Amino acid sequence: MKTKLMAAAILAVGLLIVPTVVGATLITETLTITGSGFAPVLPPDTPAPVSPLTINFTVTFDNAANISPATTSGLTVHSFNLSDPVQYVYDHTADVLVVASLPFLTPGTGCDPSANTFCIFIGGISSANPSASEVLQATSSGGVWFADTISTIVVAVPAPATLALLGIGLAVIGFARRRKLH
């Protein structure tokens, strides 16, 4: 019985590892980004933008290729203090995710700062420490403002394979304890 249990555990671990290796480019990140201390870079400088601008979102995408045109596929916005619709593009070569309202330009070249829009550039999105490098807003008058202070918080979300391994481990421990008691 012990060998059957061990074989089942090895098979389960093998089944979890193979999809992880094959689909190794699937990225899921939950981030909270805050931009504040906005300074005008293009006139007019009134009205002032919303400050701080804070967005919390989860994005899941395959980083093996560029994602363009803009999409909402795999994007869940948990909270945002602007009413703008949120979409993203991804530049595979630069590993930059751009989260913004429409209209977009191509990844890596920037956003179109039309009136009442925002744009956030997040570098190293596939790494352990993604970081927002630019947060900008364009106000109703068309003035463009850049954030002086930017904060990026990466929210740790366990991968499904990690949760599955935890479940298997707990099941094996429970089974072993049950056997010991009987």
Describe the 3D structure.
With 182 residues, the protein is an alpha+beta fold. The protein has one domain (27-155). It is 24% helix and 41% strand. The chain is built from two helices and nine strands, in the order H-E-E-E-E-E-E-E-E-E-H. The chain has a nine-stranded antiparallel sheet with strand order 3-5-6-7-8-9-1-2-4, with no helix packed on it. A hairpin with a 4-residue loop joins strand 5 (87-91) and strand 6 (96-100). Helix 1 (2-22) runs antiparallel to helix 2. The longest helix is centred in the last third of the chain and has 22 residues, at 160-181. The model is unreliable at 4-24 (pLDDT under 50).
Secondary-structure blueprint:
Layout: H1 2-22, E1 26-42, E2 53-62, E3 67-71, E4 75-80, E5 87-91, E6 96-100, E7 117-123, E8 131-138, E9 144-155, H2 160-181
Helix pairs in contact: 1-2
Could you list the spans in which at least 5 consecutive residues all have pLDDT below 50?
Answer: 4-24
> Measured on Cα atoms, how large is the radius of gyration?
22 Å
Distance between the ends: 14 Å
How many H/I helices? 2
Major sheet attributes: 9 strands, antiparallel
In round numbers, the mean pLDDT is 82
Helix content: 10-25%
Shape: elongated
**Topology, number of strands:** 9
Order of helices and strands: HEEEEEEEEEH
Could you say how many structural domains there are in total?
1
Strand order of the largest sheet: 3-5-6-7-8-9-1-2-4
Could you tell me the strand content as a percent range?
Answer: 35-45%
Structural class: alpha+beta
